[in-house]
Amino acid sequence: MSSNLTSPTSPPPPVPSSQLSSPSLAESADTQGSLSASRTLLRSPSRTLPRHEASNESITQAASLDASIPAITLSINGLGLGSDGSFDDALSAMTSAAAAAAKSGVRNTSKRGSRGEFASRPHTNTVPPPVPQGHMYRADAKARAEPRAPTPAMYWAQKKTWGTRPPKMRSQSLNVIGSNIYVFGGWNNTVCYNDVYVLDTETMFWSRMATTGDEVPPCRAHTATAVGHRIFVFGGGDGTQYFSDLYVLDTKACVWTRAKASGKSPSARRTHTCFYYDGFVYLFGGGDGHRALNDLWRVRAEPVGGAFEWEEVETTGGRPFPRGYHTSTLVGNQVVVFGGSDGQECFGDTSLLNLDTMEWAHVSIDPPLTRLAHSATLVGMYLFVVCGHDGADYSNQVLMLKLDTLRWETRMIFGQAPVPRGYHACALHDGRLFVHGGYNGQEVFDDLYTLELSSYSYLPQVPEFVIGCHR
Protein backbone atom coordinates (compact mmCIF):
# COMPACT_ATOMS: atom_id res chain seq x y z
CA MET A 1 0.00 0.00 0.00
CA SER A 2 1.33 3.43 -0.75
CA SER A 3 3.13 5.30 2.00
CA ASN A 4 0.45 7.93 2.40
CA LEU A 5 -2.08 5.41 3.73
CA THR A 6 -2.41 4.75 7.44
CA SER A 7 -2.87 1.43 9.16
CA PRO A 8 -6.35 0.31 10.20
CA THR A 9 -7.64 2.10 13.26
CA SER A 10 -9.09 -1.09 14.73
CA PRO A 11 -8.56 -4.82 14.24
CA PRO A 12 -9.55 -6.02 10.77
CA PRO A 13 -11.86 -9.00 10.12
CA PRO A 14 -10.62 -12.53 10.89
CA VAL A 15 -8.26 -13.97 8.35
CA PRO A 16 -7.84 -17.64 7.50
CA SER A 17 -4.99 -20.11 8.03
CA SER A 18 -3.92 -20.74 4.49
CA GLN A 19 -0.81 -19.11 3.13
CA LEU A 20 -0.84 -16.11 0.86
CA SER A 21 0.62 -16.69 -2.57
CA SER A 22 1.49 -13.02 -2.97
CA PRO A 23 4.49 -11.56 -1.11
CA SER A 24 2.93 -8.10 -1.14
CA LEU A 25 -0.27 -9.34 0.48
CA ALA A 26 1.76 -11.28 3.05
CA GLU A 27 3.57 -8.09 3.98
CA SER A 28 0.30 -6.22 4.37
CA ALA A 29 -0.96 -9.02 6.62
CA ASP A 30 1.57 -8.01 9.28
CA THR A 31 -0.09 -4.59 9.50
CA GLN A 32 -3.58 -6.03 9.81
CA GLY A 33 -3.05 -7.81 13.14
CA SER A 34 -5.18 -10.55 14.66
CA LEU A 35 -8.96 -10.56 14.85
CA SER A 36 -11.41 -10.67 17.72
CA ALA A 37 -13.33 -13.89 18.32
CA SER A 38 -16.64 -12.13 17.86
CA ARG A 39 -15.72 -11.19 14.27
CA THR A 40 -14.77 -14.82 13.58
CA LEU A 41 -18.29 -15.95 14.43
CA LEU A 42 -19.68 -13.74 11.67
CA ARG A 43 -17.86 -15.58 8.89
CA SER A 44 -18.94 -18.67 7.00
CA PRO A 45 -17.01 -21.56 5.40
CA SER A 46 -15.13 -20.85 2.20
CA ARG A 47 -16.25 -22.79 -0.82
CA THR A 48 -16.22 -22.81 -4.61
CA LEU A 49 -19.66 -23.39 -6.10
CA PRO A 50 -20.62 -25.59 -9.00
CA ARG A 51 -22.83 -23.86 -11.53
CA HIS A 52 -26.28 -23.56 -9.96
CA GLU A 53 -29.25 -25.23 -11.58
CA ALA A 54 -32.63 -23.73 -10.77
CA SER A 55 -34.92 -25.71 -8.51
CA ASN A 56 -38.13 -25.26 -6.61
CA GLU A 57 -36.54 -25.59 -3.18
CA SER A 58 -36.89 -22.64 -0.86
CA ILE A 59 -33.96 -20.49 0.19
CA THR A 60 -34.46 -21.77 3.72
CA GLN A 61 -33.86 -25.31 2.52
CA ALA A 62 -30.77 -24.17 0.64
CA ALA A 63 -29.39 -22.61 3.80
CA SER A 64 -29.81 -25.85 5.77
CA LEU A 65 -27.76 -28.10 3.48
CA ASP A 66 -25.22 -30.40 5.09
CA ALA A 67 -22.51 -28.15 6.54
CA SER A 68 -20.03 -31.04 6.32
CA ILE A 69 -19.34 -30.41 2.63
CA PRO A 70 -15.57 -29.91 2.38
CA ALA A 71 -14.56 -26.25 2.28
CA ILE A 72 -12.53 -25.22 -0.75
CA THR A 73 -10.51 -22.03 -1.06
CA LEU A 74 -10.23 -20.62 -4.56
CA SER A 75 -6.52 -20.17 -5.21
CA ILE A 76 -5.20 -19.68 -8.74
CA ASN A 77 -1.46 -20.17 -9.10
CA GLY A 78 0.51 -17.29 -10.51
CA LEU A 79 -1.92 -14.55 -9.50
CA GLY A 80 0.34 -12.74 -7.05
CA LEU A 81 -0.30 -9.03 -6.94
CA GLY A 82 3.34 -8.01 -7.20
CA SER A 83 5.05 -5.98 -9.89
CA ASP A 84 4.69 -8.73 -12.51
CA GLY A 85 0.92 -8.43 -12.77
CA SER A 86 -1.88 -6.08 -11.85
CA PHE A 87 -4.72 -6.63 -9.41
CA ASP A 88 -7.22 -6.10 -12.24
CA ASP A 89 -5.47 -8.65 -14.47
CA ALA A 90 -5.35 -11.12 -11.58
CA LEU A 91 -9.12 -10.89 -11.20
CA SER A 92 -9.68 -11.41 -14.92
CA ALA A 93 -7.35 -14.40 -14.91
CA MET A 94 -9.02 -15.76 -11.78
CA THR A 95 -12.51 -15.63 -13.24
CA SER A 96 -11.38 -17.12 -16.57
CA ALA A 97 -9.48 -19.92 -14.85
CA ALA A 98 -12.35 -20.64 -12.47
CA ALA A 99 -14.81 -20.83 -15.35
CA ALA A 100 -12.53 -23.21 -17.25
CA ALA A 101 -12.12 -25.37 -14.14
CA ALA A 102 -15.87 -25.46 -13.59
CA LYS A 103 -16.50 -26.61 -17.17
CA SER A 104 -13.81 -29.32 -16.96
CA GLY A 105 -15.04 -30.56 -13.58
CA VAL A 106 -11.62 -29.96 -11.99
CA ARG A 107 -11.34 -27.91 -8.83
CA ASN A 108 -8.24 -26.17 -7.61
CA THR A 109 -7.66 -27.16 -4.00
CA SER A 110 -4.19 -25.70 -3.54
CA LYS A 111 -3.53 -23.94 -0.25
CA ARG A 112 -2.47 -20.34 0.07
CA GLY A 113 0.20 -21.20 2.60
CA SER A 114 0.78 -21.97 6.24
CA ARG A 115 0.76 -18.61 8.00
CA GLY A 116 -1.32 -19.23 11.09
CA GLU A 117 -3.39 -16.07 10.86
CA PHE A 118 -4.30 -16.63 7.21
CA ALA A 119 -6.65 -19.60 7.28
CA SER A 120 -8.93 -20.25 4.34
CA ARG A 121 -11.18 -17.20 4.19
CA PRO A 122 -14.79 -17.94 5.14
CA HIS A 123 -16.40 -15.80 2.47
CA THR A 124 -17.51 -18.07 -0.32
CA ASN A 125 -20.82 -19.64 -1.20
CA THR A 126 -22.72 -22.48 0.29
CA VAL A 127 -25.55 -22.94 -2.22
CA PRO A 128 -27.26 -20.06 -4.03
CA PRO A 129 -30.98 -19.66 -3.53
CA PRO A 130 -33.22 -21.40 -6.02
CA VAL A 131 -34.36 -19.32 -8.94
CA PRO A 132 -38.01 -19.84 -9.95
CA GLN A 133 -38.37 -20.25 -13.69
CA GLY A 134 -40.42 -17.73 -15.63
CA HIS A 135 -40.21 -19.63 -18.92
CA MET A 136 -42.34 -22.44 -20.33
CA TYR A 137 -40.84 -25.14 -22.53
CA ARG A 138 -42.65 -27.27 -25.09
CA ALA A 139 -41.83 -30.93 -24.77
CA ASP A 140 -42.11 -31.48 -28.53
CA ALA A 141 -39.85 -28.63 -29.61
CA LYS A 142 -36.70 -26.81 -28.61
CA ALA A 143 -38.40 -23.46 -29.06
CA ARG A 144 -39.45 -21.76 -25.87
CA ALA A 145 -43.00 -20.49 -25.44
CA GLU A 146 -43.08 -17.32 -23.37
CA PRO A 147 -46.11 -17.08 -21.07
CA ARG A 148 -47.79 -13.76 -20.53
CA ALA A 149 -46.24 -12.17 -17.45
CA PRO A 150 -48.71 -11.50 -14.63
CA THR A 151 -49.15 -7.80 -13.88
CA PRO A 152 -47.22 -7.84 -10.56
CA ALA A 153 -44.35 -9.95 -11.96
CA MET A 154 -40.90 -8.75 -12.94
CA TYR A 155 -39.61 -9.46 -16.43
CA TRP A 156 -36.51 -9.00 -18.55
CA ALA A 157 -36.55 -7.24 -21.91
CA GLN A 158 -33.74 -6.58 -24.36
CA LYS A 159 -34.20 -3.02 -25.57
CA LYS A 160 -34.09 -1.80 -29.14
CA THR A 161 -32.23 1.48 -29.35
CA TRP A 162 -31.34 3.96 -32.07
CA GLY A 163 -28.72 6.60 -32.72
CA THR A 164 -24.99 6.42 -32.01
CA ARG A 165 -24.74 3.40 -29.74
CA PRO A 166 -21.75 2.75 -27.47
CA PRO A 167 -19.38 0.02 -28.71
CA LYS A 168 -18.91 -3.28 -26.91
CA MET A 169 -17.51 -2.51 -23.48
CA ARG A 170 -16.91 -3.74 -19.95
CA SER A 171 -15.91 -2.00 -16.70
CA GLN A 172 -17.63 1.21 -17.81
CA SER A 173 -19.67 3.54 -15.59
CA LEU A 174 -23.37 4.40 -15.87
CA ASN A 175 -25.20 7.29 -14.19
CA VAL A 176 -28.79 8.53 -14.30
CA ILE A 177 -29.45 12.28 -14.31
CA GLY A 178 -33.03 13.31 -15.04
CA SER A 179 -34.32 11.07 -17.84
CA ASN A 180 -30.86 10.55 -19.35
CA ILE A 181 -28.35 7.77 -18.80
CA TYR A 182 -24.66 8.68 -19.11
CA VAL A 183 -22.13 5.98 -20.01
CA PHE A 184 -18.42 6.78 -19.73
CA GLY A 185 -15.16 4.89 -20.29
CA GLY A 186 -14.81 1.10 -20.38
CA TRP A 187 -12.86 -1.12 -22.73
CA ASN A 188 -13.32 -3.98 -25.18
CA ASN A 189 -10.37 -6.10 -23.93
CA THR A 190 -8.12 -4.23 -26.37
CA VAL A 191 -8.97 -0.52 -26.39
CA CYS A 192 -10.03 1.80 -23.55
CA TYR A 193 -12.52 4.62 -24.18
CA ASN A 194 -12.96 8.17 -22.92
CA ASP A 195 -16.23 8.94 -24.71
CA VAL A 196 -19.49 9.95 -23.06
CA TYR A 197 -22.65 8.37 -24.49
CA VAL A 198 -26.10 9.61 -23.52
CA LEU A 199 -29.30 7.57 -23.69
CA ASP A 200 -32.64 9.36 -23.67
CA THR A 201 -34.74 6.80 -21.79
CA GLU A 202 -37.99 8.20 -23.16
CA THR A 203 -37.05 7.70 -26.84
CA MET A 204 -34.30 5.06 -26.36
CA PHE A 205 -32.04 7.21 -28.55
CA TRP A 206 -28.27 7.15 -28.04
CA SER A 207 -25.99 10.10 -28.78
CA ARG A 208 -22.30 10.74 -28.27
CA MET A 209 -21.72 13.87 -26.21
CA ALA A 210 -19.40 16.45 -27.77
CA THR A 211 -17.41 17.65 -24.76
CA THR A 212 -14.95 20.49 -24.25
CA GLY A 213 -12.56 21.42 -21.48
CA ASP A 214 -9.75 19.31 -20.04
CA GLU A 215 -8.87 16.07 -21.78
CA VAL A 216 -9.79 12.94 -19.85
CA PRO A 217 -7.61 9.87 -20.49
CA PRO A 218 -9.28 6.65 -21.68
CA CYS A 219 -9.95 4.50 -18.64
CA ARG A 220 -11.76 1.51 -17.22
CA ALA A 221 -12.69 0.25 -13.74
CA HIS A 222 -13.01 3.85 -12.56
CA THR A 223 -15.89 5.32 -10.58
CA ALA A 224 -18.42 7.93 -11.71
CA THR A 225 -20.61 9.54 -9.03
CA ALA A 226 -23.55 11.80 -9.90
CA VAL A 227 -23.97 14.91 -7.75
CA GLY A 228 -26.76 17.07 -9.14
CA HIS A 229 -25.98 17.69 -12.82
CA ARG A 230 -22.28 16.88 -12.34
CA ILE A 231 -20.46 13.56 -12.56
CA PHE A 232 -17.29 13.02 -10.47
CA VAL A 233 -14.89 10.55 -12.13
CA PHE A 234 -11.97 9.20 -10.11
CA GLY A 235 -9.17 6.75 -10.80
CA GLY A 236 -9.37 3.82 -13.18
CA GLY A 237 -6.64 2.84 -15.57
CA ASP A 238 -5.55 1.83 -19.04
CA GLY A 239 -3.33 -1.21 -19.44
CA THR A 240 -0.60 -1.01 -16.80
CA GLN A 241 -1.46 2.61 -15.93
CA TYR A 242 -3.39 3.47 -12.78
CA PHE A 243 -4.85 6.93 -12.28
CA SER A 244 -5.39 9.12 -9.23
CA ASP A 245 -6.93 12.19 -10.85
CA LEU A 246 -10.41 13.56 -10.18
CA TYR A 247 -12.39 14.90 -13.13
CA VAL A 248 -15.79 16.59 -13.04
CA LEU A 249 -18.20 16.54 -15.99
CA ASP A 250 -20.81 19.30 -16.15
CA THR A 251 -23.60 17.53 -18.06
CA LYS A 252 -25.40 20.81 -18.78
CA ALA A 253 -22.41 22.60 -20.29
CA CYS A 254 -20.77 19.37 -21.58
CA VAL A 255 -17.46 20.50 -20.09
CA TRP A 256 -14.78 18.37 -18.42
CA THR A 257 -12.71 19.92 -15.61
CA ARG A 258 -9.65 18.33 -14.06
CA ALA A 259 -10.15 19.07 -10.37
CA LYS A 260 -7.40 20.85 -8.52
CA ALA A 261 -6.80 18.85 -5.35
CA SER A 262 -5.43 20.10 -2.03
CA GLY A 263 -3.86 18.10 0.77
CA LYS A 264 -3.13 14.38 0.75
CA SER A 265 -5.01 12.46 -1.94
CA PRO A 266 -5.84 8.75 -2.43
CA SER A 267 -3.25 6.63 -4.23
CA ALA A 268 -3.79 5.64 -7.85
CA ARG A 269 -6.22 2.74 -8.15
CA ARG A 270 -9.05 1.07 -9.99
CA THR A 271 -11.85 -1.43 -9.17
CA HIS A 272 -12.79 0.76 -6.17
CA THR A 273 -16.25 2.12 -5.31
CA CYS A 274 -17.57 5.63 -4.67
CA PHE A 275 -20.85 7.07 -3.37
CA TYR A 276 -22.22 10.48 -2.37
CA TYR A 277 -23.46 11.37 1.12
CA ASP A 278 -24.05 14.66 2.93
CA GLY A 279 -21.86 16.89 0.77
CA PHE A 280 -19.00 14.42 0.28
CA VAL A 281 -18.00 11.87 -2.34
CA TYR A 282 -16.64 8.83 -0.49
CA LEU A 283 -14.14 6.30 -1.89
CA PHE A 284 -13.50 2.78 -0.57
CA GLY A 285 -11.04 0.04 -1.51
CA GLY A 286 -9.85 -1.01 -4.95
CA GLY A 287 -6.46 -2.19 -6.16
CA ASP A 288 -3.29 -0.26 -6.98
CA GLY A 289 -1.58 -2.85 -9.19
CA HIS A 290 0.34 -4.41 -6.31
CA ARG A 291 -2.28 -5.23 -3.73
CA ALA A 292 -5.93 -4.81 -2.81
CA LEU A 293 -6.87 -1.84 -0.62
CA ASN A 294 -9.39 -1.17 2.15
CA ASP A 295 -8.83 2.51 2.93
CA LEU A 296 -11.65 5.09 3.09
CA TRP A 297 -11.40 8.63 1.69
CA ARG A 298 -13.76 11.49 1.02
CA VAL A 299 -13.70 14.76 -0.90
CA ARG A 300 -16.04 17.73 -0.63
CA ALA A 301 -18.34 18.01 -3.64
CA GLU A 302 -17.89 21.78 -3.59
CA PRO A 303 -14.39 23.25 -3.98
CA VAL A 304 -12.89 25.36 -1.21
CA GLY A 305 -10.75 28.20 -2.52
CA GLY A 306 -10.92 26.70 -6.00
CA ALA A 307 -9.56 23.32 -4.86
CA PHE A 308 -11.19 20.02 -3.89
CA GLU A 309 -9.97 18.89 -0.49
CA TRP A 310 -9.41 15.17 0.14
CA GLU A 311 -9.17 13.60 3.58
CA GLU A 312 -8.61 10.04 4.75
CA VAL A 313 -11.39 8.91 7.07
CA GLU A 314 -10.59 7.14 10.32
CA THR A 315 -13.06 4.43 11.30
CA THR A 316 -13.69 2.03 14.18
CA GLY A 317 -15.06 -1.51 14.29
CA GLY A 318 -12.46 -3.10 12.01
CA ARG A 319 -12.30 -2.55 8.27
CA PRO A 320 -13.44 -5.19 5.78
CA PHE A 321 -10.76 -7.21 4.02
CA PRO A 322 -8.94 -5.34 1.22
CA ARG A 323 -10.85 -5.83 -2.03
CA GLY A 324 -11.87 -4.57 -5.45
CA TYR A 325 -14.83 -5.27 -7.76
CA HIS A 326 -17.14 -5.10 -4.74
CA THR A 327 -20.21 -2.89 -4.43
CA SER A 328 -20.88 -0.06 -1.96
CA THR A 329 -24.57 0.89 -1.81
CA LEU A 330 -25.88 3.85 0.20
CA VAL A 331 -28.87 3.02 2.42
CA GLY A 332 -29.91 6.01 4.52
CA ASN A 333 -26.89 6.98 6.60
CA GLN A 334 -25.16 3.62 6.08
CA VAL A 335 -23.29 2.07 3.20
CA VAL A 336 -23.53 -1.66 2.48
CA VAL A 337 -20.27 -3.18 1.19
CA PHE A 338 -20.82 -6.58 -0.41
CA GLY A 339 -18.62 -9.10 -2.20
CA GLY A 340 -15.57 -8.40 -4.32
CA SER A 341 -12.16 -10.05 -4.50
CA ASP A 342 -8.54 -9.52 -3.50
CA GLY A 343 -7.27 -11.27 -6.64
CA GLN A 344 -7.09 -14.60 -4.79
CA GLU A 345 -10.61 -15.27 -3.55
CA CYS A 346 -14.19 -14.26 -4.29
CA PHE A 347 -15.87 -12.81 -1.20
CA GLY A 348 -19.42 -13.18 0.08
CA ASP A 349 -19.25 -11.13 3.26
CA THR A 350 -21.35 -8.05 4.03
CA SER A 351 -20.20 -5.02 6.03
CA LEU A 352 -22.07 -1.88 7.09
CA LEU A 353 -20.49 1.51 7.69
CA ASN A 354 -22.44 4.09 9.67
CA LEU A 355 -21.46 7.38 8.03
CA ASP A 356 -22.48 9.45 11.06
CA THR A 357 -20.39 7.51 13.60
CA MET A 358 -17.82 6.08 11.13
CA GLU A 359 -18.16 2.64 12.74
CA TRP A 360 -18.01 -0.62 10.81
CA ALA A 361 -20.32 -3.54 11.58
CA HIS A 362 -20.00 -6.96 9.97
CA VAL A 363 -23.17 -8.99 9.55
CA SER A 364 -23.72 -12.69 9.03
CA ILE A 365 -26.14 -13.54 6.23
CA ASP A 366 -27.27 -17.13 5.73
CA PRO A 367 -26.52 -18.45 3.19
CA PRO A 368 -23.45 -16.33 2.32
CA LEU A 369 -23.30 -15.88 -1.46
CA THR A 370 -20.10 -14.84 -3.24
CA ARG A 371 -19.99 -12.26 -6.01
CA LEU A 372 -17.47 -10.06 -7.77
CA ALA A 373 -17.92 -7.73 -10.75
CA HIS A 374 -21.66 -7.65 -9.98
CA SER A 375 -24.01 -4.71 -9.48
CA ALA A 376 -26.04 -3.91 -6.36
CA THR A 377 -28.91 -1.42 -6.52
CA LEU A 378 -31.20 -0.24 -3.73
CA VAL A 379 -34.92 -0.71 -4.47
CA GLY A 380 -36.99 0.13 -1.39
CA MET A 381 -35.76 -2.14 1.38
CA TYR A 382 -34.22 -4.62 -1.07
CA LEU A 383 -30.72 -4.75 -2.46
CA PHE A 384 -30.96 -6.13 -6.02
CA VAL A 385 -27.72 -7.98 -6.82
CA VAL A 386 -27.59 -8.62 -10.57
CA CYS A 387 -25.21 -10.91 -12.51
CA GLY A 388 -21.48 -11.06 -11.64
CA HIS A 389 -19.07 -13.92 -10.99
CA ASP A 390 -19.49 -16.32 -8.05
CA GLY A 391 -15.93 -17.66 -7.94
CA ALA A 392 -16.72 -20.54 -10.30
CA ASP A 393 -18.67 -19.07 -13.20
CA TYR A 394 -20.53 -16.03 -14.48
CA SER A 395 -24.15 -15.63 -13.44
CA ASN A 396 -27.32 -13.92 -14.65
CA GLN A 397 -29.17 -14.40 -11.37
CA VAL A 398 -31.13 -11.63 -9.69
CA LEU A 399 -30.67 -11.96 -5.93
CA MET A 400 -32.70 -9.81 -3.55
CA LEU A 401 -31.30 -9.06 -0.11
CA LYS A 402 -34.13 -7.94 2.16
CA LEU A 403 -32.37 -5.40 4.33
CA ASP A 404 -34.69 -5.43 7.34
CA THR A 405 -34.34 -9.21 7.79
CA LEU A 406 -30.91 -9.58 6.11
CA ARG A 407 -32.07 -12.64 4.21
CA TRP A 408 -31.69 -13.52 0.55
CA GLU A 409 -34.83 -13.91 -1.54
CA THR A 410 -35.61 -14.71 -5.17
CA ARG A 411 -38.65 -14.10 -7.32
CA MET A 412 -40.01 -15.56 -10.54
CA ILE A 413 -38.83 -13.35 -13.41
CA PHE A 414 -40.35 -13.63 -16.87
CA GLY A 415 -38.85 -12.78 -20.24
CA GLN A 416 -35.43 -13.56 -21.65
CA ALA A 417 -32.63 -12.88 -19.16
CA PRO A 418 -29.26 -11.53 -20.30
CA VAL A 419 -26.44 -13.95 -21.00
CA PRO A 420 -24.51 -14.60 -17.76
CA ARG A 421 -21.93 -11.85 -17.33
CA GLY A 422 -20.02 -9.54 -15.02
CA TYR A 423 -18.23 -6.19 -15.33
CA HIS A 424 -21.48 -4.64 -16.57
CA ALA A 425 -23.08 -1.35 -15.53
CA CYS A 426 -26.49 -1.01 -13.90
CA ALA A 427 -28.79 1.74 -12.60
CA LEU A 428 -32.40 2.23 -11.49
CA HIS A 429 -34.70 4.62 -13.37
CA ASP A 430 -38.47 4.89 -13.80
CA GLY A 431 -39.30 1.51 -12.28
CA ARG A 432 -36.66 -0.33 -14.33
CA LEU A 433 -33.14 -1.59 -13.79
CA PHE A 434 -31.00 -0.79 -16.84
CA VAL A 435 -28.17 -3.29 -17.45
CA HIS A 436 -25.56 -2.37 -20.07
CA GLY A 437 -22.61 -4.24 -21.56
CA GLY A 438 -20.32 -6.56 -19.63
CA TYR A 439 -18.18 -9.64 -20.21
CA ASN A 440 -18.67 -13.40 -19.82
CA GLY A 441 -15.08 -14.61 -20.05
CA GLN A 442 -15.21 -14.91 -23.83
CA GLU A 443 -17.25 -12.05 -25.26
CA VAL A 444 -17.69 -8.35 -24.52
CA PHE A 445 -21.27 -7.08 -24.91
CA ASP A 446 -22.91 -3.90 -26.18
CA ASP A 447 -26.51 -4.87 -25.44
CA LEU A 448 -28.98 -3.08 -23.18
CA TYR A 449 -31.51 -4.90 -21.00
CA THR A 450 -34.14 -3.67 -18.62
CA LEU A 451 -35.52 -5.52 -15.65
CA GLU A 452 -39.08 -4.22 -15.42
CA LEU A 453 -39.84 -4.16 -11.70
CA SER A 454 -43.63 -3.92 -12.13
CA SER A 455 -45.21 -3.71 -8.65
CA TYR A 456 -41.72 -3.70 -7.12
CA SER A 457 -41.23 -0.23 -8.61
CA TYR A 458 -43.33 1.07 -5.70
CA LEU A 459 -40.79 -0.21 -3.18
CA PRO A 460 -38.80 3.08 -3.11
CA GLN A 461 -41.87 4.64 -1.48
CA VAL A 462 -41.64 2.43 1.63
CA PRO A 463 -41.12 4.29 4.92
CA GLU A 464 -37.74 4.49 6.57
CA PHE A 465 -36.42 1.28 8.06
CA VAL A 466 -33.43 0.08 10.05
CA ILE A 467 -31.10 -2.48 8.47
CA GLY A 468 -31.49 -5.79 10.29
CA CYS A 469 -34.39 -4.58 12.47
CA HIS A 470 -36.43 -7.75 11.83
CA ARG A 471 -33.73 -10.41 12.00
Helical residue percent?
under 10%
What's the main sheet like? 5 strands, mixed
Q: Helix/strand/pairing class, anyone?
A: mainly beta
What amount of the residues lies in strands? 25-35%
The DSSP helix count reads: 4
Low-confidence runs of at least 5 consecutive residues: 1-85, 104-126, 131-144
Oligomer: single chain
Q: How are the strands of the largest sheet arranged? A: 29-3-32-31-30
Rg, alpha carbons: 21 Å
Observed structural traits:
single chain, 471 residues, mainly beta, five-stranded mixed beta sheet, 8% helix, 33% strand, disordered N terminus
Your description of this structure?
By secondary structure, this protein is mostly beta strands. The chain has helices spanning 23-32, 37-40, 59-63, 87-104, and strands at 136-137, 144-145, 154-158, 162-163, 173-177, 180-184, 196-200, 205-208, 212-213, 223-227, 230-234, 237-238, 241-242, 246-250, 255-258, 261-262, 273-277, 280-287, 292-300, 308-312, 327-331, 334-338, 350-354, 359-363, 375-379, 382-389, 394-402, 407-409, 413-415, 425-429, 432-439, 444-452. The chain has a 5-stranded mixed β-sheet, with no helix packed on it. It has a 5-stranded mixed β-sheet with strand order 4-8-7-6-5, with no helix packed on it. It is globular. The two termini are 37 Å apart. Keywords: Kelch repeat, Repeat. Residues 137-147 have a biased composition (Basic and acidic residues).
